[in-house]
Amino acid sequence: MINYQVNSQPIKQLSLFPSCTHQDRIKASPILKWAGGKTQLLPAIKQQYPQQLKQSKIITYIEPFFGGGAVFFDIYSNFKIEKAYLFDKNPELIILYKVIQNDVGNLIEELSILEGEYLGLDTEKRKELYYQVRENYNTFDKQTDANNYRQEWVKRAACTIFLNKTCFNGLYRVNSKGCFNVPMGRYKNPKILNKDNLLAVHQAFKIAEIKHTDFAEVVNYANESTFIYYDPPYRPISETANFNAYSSLEFNDNEQKRLRDIFVKMSNQGALQLLSNSDPTNYVDDPFFDELYKDFNINRILASRMINSKGNKRGKIREIVITNY
Ligand SMILES: C[S@@+](CC[C@H](N)C(=O)[O-])C[C@H]1O[C@@H](n2cnc3c(N)ncnc32)[C@H](O)[C@@H]1O
Predict the structure, then answer these.
(1) d(CA 32, CA 153)
(2) What pLDDT shows up at residue 242?
(3) Does residue 89's CB lie within 6 angstroms of at least one atom of ligand 1?
(4) Ligand 1 atom nearest 70 alpha carbon
(5) Which end of the chain has fewer CB atoms surrounding its CB within 10 Å, N or C?
(6) Domain boundaries, the chain
(7) Residue 183: what pLDDT?
């Protein structure tokens, strides 16, 4: 049995950088590998940003399906936004981001211990440590209010990063009891601690309000100087065209319609908006999004990703992109 040491160092608050203008902003990138992450699609998504962003007319940026946040980090590094509202329904993500925001120094120390310990082990011992961390992770209080910051979250956040970097394929999957159940991956030399990026993300989050909430919360923050990017969970691709099957999913067609209603409402409030989703017409003649967003601009961009259900074939498929500008 390996003794995984809980970091008992005194808690430090770091003020790592003085405040800076957007030209001095350090490039930050997603901390986690996340399903539906937009890093690879970024060059095509950037083409869709509104002119007003380039003209520095956008003051507030909102990303209500934050996930790994690839688009926020790009916008933060390249444009002069002053405030960001970043939301997600996944509490573990929000806990991690709040720890980066409030206590990055202790998070780095915790990760450094974990990384040193893990990389020094052979495969069998690594496996023991991985499952020990996973077991420990699943004992953390799932009812905790992710909007109410707690210093004890540092270790939990370190586990989120550790598991993401060492688990199979960087997946995040929980069972019906909310327990993380992804097996160990096969990375030989995973980079568990990326200190520079953690510090850059900490800096980026200085302009951010990070919230565990539903996407509809955007209504409280958007106006004419706001840009909103929506990246909801994908509408699953079915080759059978049996779309009723979707209704059992968490983000089903009713959720897509609720999102469309928010898109309309925010448009009337004057916000500039961009929404992306996988394009069902890659596989079947399914005009779902074309009908849902018929009053807005619909474009299609090419994405490279797994294109069959066995996940062993990559290829170019279309992603649908909707704007109100
Ligand atoms: C496709 S991912 C976003 C990926 C992100 N753009 C990136 O680059 O990593 C969708 C995210 O929406 C979140 N989500 C699902 N339902 C939600 C809801 N009702 N309100 C807010 N977020 C939600 C999920 O937890 C997930 O992180």
Answers:
(1) 17
(2) 43
(3) yes
(4) 8
(5) N
(6) 32-89+213-323, 92-195
(7) 97
pLDDT, tens digit, 9 for 90 and up, residues 14-58: 444 444 566 678 899 999 999 989 998 999 999 999 999 999 999
Nearest to 266 by CA among 237, 294, 320, 225: 225
CATH classification code of 92-195? 1.10.1020.10
Give 149-165 pLDDT, tens digit per residue: 999 999 999 999 999 99
Tokens (6 digits) for 65: 């399906």
User: Residue 5 has which token pair?
Assistant: 């040491």
Quick one: CA torsion of 278, 284, 285, 291, rounded to 10 degrees?
Answer: -30
Distance 319 CA to ligand 1 centre (A): 16
- For the four alpha carbons of 88, 92, 95 and 97, in that order, the dihedral sign comes to negative
Asked if CATH classification 3.40.50.150 holds for the domain at 32-89+213-323, the reply, yes or no, is yes
pLDDT at 285: 80
Exposed, middle or buried: residue 303 (CB in 10 Å: 0-12, 13-18, 19+)?
A: buried
